[in-house]
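In full, the data.
>
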Amino acid sequence: MKADYKNWVPKGMIYGLFSATAVLVLLFAIAAILTKEAPVPLRITILVVLGLGAIICGCMAVWMKLLHDQFSYDGKRKMSKQIIEGIAEYVDIQSGGKCLDVGCGSGALAIAVAKRNPTADIIGVDRWGKEYASFNKKLCQSNAEAEGVSNTRFVQGDALQLDFPNESFNAVVSNYVYHNIPSKDRQKILLETLRVLKKGGTFAIHDIFSKAKYGDMKVFVEKLKSMGYESVELIDTTEGKFMMPKEAKWMGLSCSALLVGKK
């Protein structure tokens, strides 16, 4: 039995884009025939709209396919695996301690942390929305079993309002989650995650920390320090740690960084 962590780029999305491209190309060909006698401005408008639509969909489909190949656990690059294992390296939990993985998806990060901390209890929480229909609780449990990990459990929940008491975990982790959540204040989501972290606990949160998505993260880092956090650091992961600058740029992952520290 082999773990199946799926892919951060769903195949259904790729197939949908290629299908839409094919339909638009077909409509373009039909319109080119049927509008021969139509007024020139109308004919040009119809063909331009359909042609541009086909080009845009085609480019998106190819881009998504390339992303899928980069992230694939079975591909050559295996970027997902590199990122997951890289985040897990920051987590060292004492025996009997607990760690929370927010937005656990297919269970990859929770399981990686569990492997490194076999005497700790690792909990993965996710809402498993329709946009990632292939990710679910059953898949997480199946992957944990396939990896021979018994110190994980998975629950459904909301990152905006975690159903856990204050200071109930020795570590919290997350990977590429919060930028996907519609919000005008993602720093508030980070604070909600850190709310459940015990004094002396550690955190490792990886995401696209762009100013457009998060505001000024340097200010946020200083805010945490002023709140009494022992250490806080924002580590750029696009300069060779998890990916190279060119990769980050074409993949749309610029501003990826690790927010790590100790409470």
Remarks:
- The beta strands are 98-102, 121-126, 152-156, 169-175, 197-208, 231-236, 256-262.
